[in-house]
Amino acid sequence: MDNSKRRPVATPSYSVAQYAPHQILVCKACKHQGETCEPGHALLRKLRAAIAAAGLADRFEVAGTACLAGCVPDHGGPCVIGWRADAKATWLFGDIDPAQPIDDLIEFSRLYAALDDGWMSGRDCPPRLCDNTLARIPAARALAQQGEAVR
């Protein structure tokens, strides 16, 4: 197959601004159905309230985002959610049902905030999240040609 004539599909650039030291991203657009994700919106509202009630609102921003591309087609409900922060590992979890208690999401938020680099073993995650881990991505650190971190 000749890929030399193939060109990437142009899509608008997309980014989510981050105003707090840590951010929790909740998928709220379903790429499989081409519409907004009601379970995602429900989880977003529930998680915002729980983060505030846990006294973590000054450390975590909870934001909705476009499709995080981690869900299973025609699964019908559970959500994809991610944690990120500057110079920390990014975590992505799938199959998070907004109808379930979210204590484990708050527990993970506390663990994540306490770690300098956000890196932990899957065994250290709350049990439900351990089973639903989609990705643990190391933090990116831009380096200058001389090997020093770019700030």
Write up what this structure looks like.
The protein is α+β, with helices and mostly antiparallel strands and 151 residues long. It has 3 helices and 7 strands. The protein has helices at 38-53, 103-114, 127-131; strands at 22-27, 29-30, 35-36, 60-65, 79-85, 90-96, 133-137. A hairpin with a 4-residue loop joins strand 5 and strand 6 (90-96). The radius of gyration is 17 Å and the shape is globular. It starts with 21 loop residues before the first strand and ends in a 14-residue tail after the last strand. 26% of the residues are buried. The model has no long low-confidence stretch (mean pLDDT 82).
Terminal CA distance: 43 Å
Number of DSSP E strands? 7
Strand line-up in the sheet with most strands: 4-1-5-6-7
Mean pLDDT: 82
**Main sheet makeup:** 5 strands, mixed
Can you count the helices? Answer: 3
Uncertain spans, ≥5 residues at pLDDT below 50? none
Instruction: Tell me the name of the CATH homologous superfamily.
Output: Glutaredoxin
- Estimate nothing, just give the exact number of structural domains: 1
Assign the structural class, choosing from mainly alpha, mainly beta, alpha/beta, alpha+beta, or little secondary structure: alpha+beta
Overall morphology:
globular
Task: Classify the helix fraction into a percent range.
Answer: 10-25%
**Percent strand:** 15-25%
Query: What is the ordering of alpha helices and beta strands?
Result: EEEHEEEHHE
Look up the CATH topology.
Glutaredoxin
InterPro entries: DUF1636
Pfam families: DUF1636
Protein name: Metal-binding protein
